[in-house]
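I trust your eye. Have a critical look at both lines of this record:
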Amino acid sequence: MRKAGKLRNAFLVVASALLTIAATAQIQIQPFSHNGYDRPYLLYRPAHLSAHPAVVFMLGGITSTAESTSREYGWINEADRNGFLAVFPEPVRTNLTLPLNEKRNITFWEMKGSRTHILGPGMSAVDDDGYLRAVLKDVLRREHPDPKRVFFAGFSSGSGMVQLFASQHPQLVSAVVAVATPLMDPPSKLSSPVSILYIHGDEDEQFTAFEANSPHFATTPHGNWITWGYLNGCQKQTAVKKDWGVELTWLGCKQNIPVVAYFLKEVGHEWEGSLDWKANRRHHPPVDLNFTSLAWKFFSSIHPQ
């Protein structure tokens, strides 16, 4: 009986500790406005964090919100496992004079593609670039993450946006993981190199009217990887066939940063491992890949100088 009592007490101590840990992990709505628009962002802070943790910004695709993105892609679980901050910014609906509608008035990120926001008289332009810079500044001030471990990930229009943001502000971004949509408006050069992992499925559209309507630039997925190689001053291309497709890697890039592309077979316009992917997938590719885990593996391998 005494032994059983000790075990029960030990269990209660452990259970209490776990509840305390769970209670300290939290997702917060941070009120925020930019350029006249109310755009709160979500911040997830795991229970276990170092003094200056890494931070990952995740941008969803069309129709997404900060809240849906925080649920959809599994970044909260990944943050719990690996001890980093996760930030989910808020995109803006197409027509600012009408309420949000998931079918007729969708959200999207300004990626220099063919979509444009519709404004009413006297309304300010939507400035996603300025908004992301302001949110990043706010997170750095509030949370004190490591400014050399600031990572951006994005899917669909979010993919185009994170690449555009990194190309315009490479000094602010340590690495990017982009899925399913290329960079639409590349600069002529970068002020500093940016580590890139680009992922595209062979069942996704390779060159669309949406891409062709970009005001400055259109490219294929492979061309997007080529563009980043040249922007980062890389010297040599390599290709390795995998069970899941082809891995392309640039060698000899500035500061030896990675510039990598995964071209996957039997994958469409999707983020593997997301809630939507699990619910709607008709058949699975030969090897299932969780893009969120792949993204964090890539981010955690980056060691900024």
